[in-house]
Specification:
By secondary structure, this protein is an alpha/beta fold. The protein has 2 domains: 3-137, 3-Layer(aba) Sandwich (Rossmann fold); 154-329, Rossmann fold. It contains 13 helices and 11 strands. Strands 8-7-6-9-10-11 form a 6-stranded parallel β-sheet, with helices on both faces. It has a 5-stranded parallel β-sheet with strand order 3-2-1-4-5, with helices on both faces. Helix 3 crosses helix 4. It is globular and about 55 Å long.
């Protein structure tokens, strides 16, 4: 029997983008046992995935050797390194099975950032690059069924339904995610405020989502925006997004959570570009970006625009975003 370890320790978007591969593996090998290996904080993203036999979570403070001991007890036949980090490389040494991995295109990414020379060739989303690790298992991206899958527990759905009712959110609402780990990935707050007004004018209530670090920023969107940032767990955030008519987000994990629950997305991309592979992996998305000679300027965003103008997101205007919402949800 095949027993396959799928290893991706972080982060939100990266973990969810492995789920098309998980789905394809189970379809091609229905009797296989699939185990997902990730950090405890990321485990809720895959905990209810029916294609998985189990989730092996690296606990806070746990050594890699202890995790490896638990994984060896599963007697895996194959290991798919979907992370390509020092930690996952060490795990490959500690757990004996047939390991394989995928190319992170680091040289092409570095060249594109430093010289704007595109060595990527064909544009391949990261969700499809992960399939390279399973080349020996005869699986391929499942055309027509591509989006990530974020399965939610009934308890998360029930909690969010109660929370929304408590806050009077019984009409169609639009979710917005103003936060991002790095400043250059954040759309200007004045644009978010203007967009909230336009969405309200279009008949939407507006809910801001994100983690605890995003709460202060979300609170600046104005009194007409219900601030749910930091209120929910990962699963509950997914349940909130599942109830939304649309999400407007930057290049963040929340964007991939929305695609995983089937919610349309308007995505705002600034310092990062499609070649990196992290555009929304769904047909129900519109990406707004500006064709500037300075893009991309980094792989994950930085604390300030290298040229001082931040035009990549400053020039994406609220009216354009509102129009994209109307187009997508029509």
């Amino acid at each position: 029997m095949l027993r396959i370890l799928c290893v991706r320790f972080s982060s939100i978007g990266d973990v969810l983008l492995t789920t098309p591969l998980v789905r394809a593996l189970k379809r091609r090998h229905p009797d296989a046992e699939l185990f997902f290996v990730t950090k405890r904080a990321m485990a809720p993203l895959v905990a209810d995935n029916p294609h998985l036999t189990g989730v092996a979570a690296l606990e806070p403070g746990e050594s890699l050797t202890d995790l490896a001991r638990r994984l060896r007890a599963l007697n895996p036949t194959h290991g798919l390194d979907l992370h390509g980090s020092l930690r996952s490389a060490a795990l490959r040494l500690l757990v004996r099975c047939r390991w394989s991995s995928y190319s992170k295109r680091k040289l092409a990414r570095t060249a594109l950032i430093a010289t704007k020379l595109d060595l990527y060739g064909k544009q391949v989303p990261v969700a499809e690059r992960y399939f390279e690790a399973a080349r020996g298992l005869d699986v391929h991206p499942d055309a027509g069924e591509g989006p990530p899958e974020f399965f939610l527990a009934a308890s998360a759905r029930e909690h969010v339904a109660h929370w929304l009712t408590e806050h009077g959110l019984d009409a169609p609402f639009a979710a917005v995610a103003p936060g991002a780990a790095h400043a250059t990935k954040r759309w200007p707050i004045k644009h978010w405020q203007a967009l909230a007004e336009r969405l309200r004018g279009a008949g939407y209530q507006v809910v801001a989502v994100g983690g605890p670090d995003d709460r202060e920023l979300a609170g600046r969107l104005g009194p007409a925006v219900t601030n749910a940032a930091g209120e929910f767990t990962l699963q509950e955030t997914g349940a909130c997004l599942a109830r939304a008519a649309v999400l407007v987000s930057g290049d963040t994990g929340v964007m991939h959570m929305a695609t995983g629950v089937g919610t349309p997305v308007v995505a705002l991309f600034g310092p990062t570009v499609e070649a990196f592979g992290f555009f929304p992996y769904t047909d129900r998305a519109v990406v707004l970006e500006r064709d500037l000679s300075c893009r991309p300027c980094s792989a994950m965003g930085t604390e300030r625009c290298p040229l001082g103008h931040h035009r990549c997101l400053e020039d994406v205007l609220p009216d354009q975003v509102a129009a994209a919402v109307a187009q997508l949800v029509a």
